[in-house]
């Protein structure tokens, strides 16, 4: 299943500049997703990170990867309207820089779930090379319960 930006915005509550997934190219609801983030020089964080040597901040790489997992978690109709909140991150590794012109391809896999809690593993790739990986603990909450 492929989702474009309009489909993604029906699932995730994020909006620019914090919407960090452009397309979902594979989706198995509540199991896995593969998504794309096209990294461009037009993004505001590159003004200061770093002038003359733009590098995507690690925290935004993690957020982009988590949003791909969020699409997998929130796609089922019974989860629509919920928000996936971080409960923690483990085994975070950065293997290469992500810079303007790169395409960050994230593969997200739900490792385990119990009710509205679970563990998500994500690997982010640029040109087929591992750029970052992490395990995310999450909780699904209704927006009005925040």
UniProtKB/TrEMBL annotation:
Its EC number(s): 4.2.1.59
Active-site residues per Swiss-Prot or TrEMBL entry: 49
InterPro entries, per database record: FabA_FabZ, FabZ, HotDog_dom_sf
Keywords in alphabetical order: Cytoplasm, Lipid A biosynthesis, Lipid biosynthesis, Lipid metabolism, Lyase
Cellular localisation: Cytoplasm
Chemical reaction(s) catalysed: a (3R)-hydroxyacyl-[ACP] = a (2E)-enoyl-[ACP] + H2O
GO CC annotations on file: cytoplasm; membrane
GO MF annotation list: (3R)-hydroxyacyl-[acyl-carrier-protein] dehydratase activity
Location, primary (coarse class): cytoplasm
Gene3D superfamilies: Hotdog Thioesterase
Function (record text): Involved in unsaturated fatty acids biosynthesis. Catalyzes the dehydration of short chain beta-hydroxyacyl-ACPs and long chain saturated and unsaturated beta-hydroxyacyl-ACPs.
PANTHER family: 3-HYDROXYACYL-[ACYL-CARRIER-PROTEIN] DEHYDRATASE
Protein family membership: Belongs to the thioester dehydratase family. FabZ subfamily.
The protein's name in its UniProt record: 3-hydroxyacyl-[acyl-carrier-protein] dehydratase FabZ
Organism annotation: Mitsuokella multacida DSM 20544
């Amino acid at each position: 299943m492929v989702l474009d930006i309009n489909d993604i915005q029906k699932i995730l509550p994020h909006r620019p500049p914090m919407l960090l997934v452009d397309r979902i190219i594979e989706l198995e609801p509540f199991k896995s997703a593969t998504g794309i983030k096209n990294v461009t020089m037009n993004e505001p964080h590159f003004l200061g990170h770093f002038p003359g040597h733009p590098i995507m901040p690690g925290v935004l790489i993690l957020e982009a990867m988590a949003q791909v997992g969020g699409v997998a978690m929130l796609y089922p109709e019974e989860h629509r309207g919920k928000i996936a909140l971080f409960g923690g991150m483990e085994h975070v590794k950065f293997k290469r820089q992500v810079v303007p012109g790169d395409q960050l391809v994230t593969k997200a896999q739900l490792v385990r779930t119990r009710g509205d809690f679970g563990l998500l593993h994500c690997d982010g790739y640029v040109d087929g090379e591992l750029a970052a990986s992490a395990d995310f603990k999450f909780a699904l909450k209704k927006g009005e319960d925040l």
